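User: My instructor asked us to take a sequence, write out its structure as tokens, and then describe one feature of it. I'm not sure where to start. Here is the sequence I was given:
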Amino acid sequence: MTDDNQATDNADSAKKPEQARGRSTIEFPYLDLLTAMEVAHAVKAVGGTSADWNQLAVKLSMAPDGGGYRLRIMAAKVFGIVEADRGHVELTELGIRIVDPAYERAAKVEAFLRVQLFKALYDKLVGQTLPPPAAIERMAEQAGVAPKQKDKARQVFIKSAKQAGMFDLSPDRLAM
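Assistant: Let's start with the prediction itself. The structure tokens for your sequence are:
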């Protein structure tokens, strides 16, 4: 092995173990903001500010032990809308505001910016014309998204930004 190869190997081994295994090192949801808001509205419909895990699953017409249901709850948690623990789901302060029509618009922006990845990308892209999808994916990967997840991260980022009203002023520029 030459010194150049050894230096490359040392640089590769210095990468975070999560990235070496293909895991993201920055948090982001796999589902969009409106899907997370559906969870909040279901909690409100079932119990006001909190709901039993099984009751909530029934309200969402999902199996309480299914992966799709867990994915929805996790997305709502990442957006900061709910807290879930031991068969119980509760709206956060932000979740209470997001289901209130008087505060919904501002709460959607806050929920969007609570996602680590979305905040990082927003800070880099605010006010600029959006680059092509491959460039956004590259930025996501540089922020800590695993290579195999960068396409999904970009899609959820753009969709959630639209849902939060970040493109209301211009269809190709992020702005509050």
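For the description part of your assignment, you could build on this observation: The first strand starts at residue 50 and ends at 52. Try explaining in your own words what that tells you about the chain.
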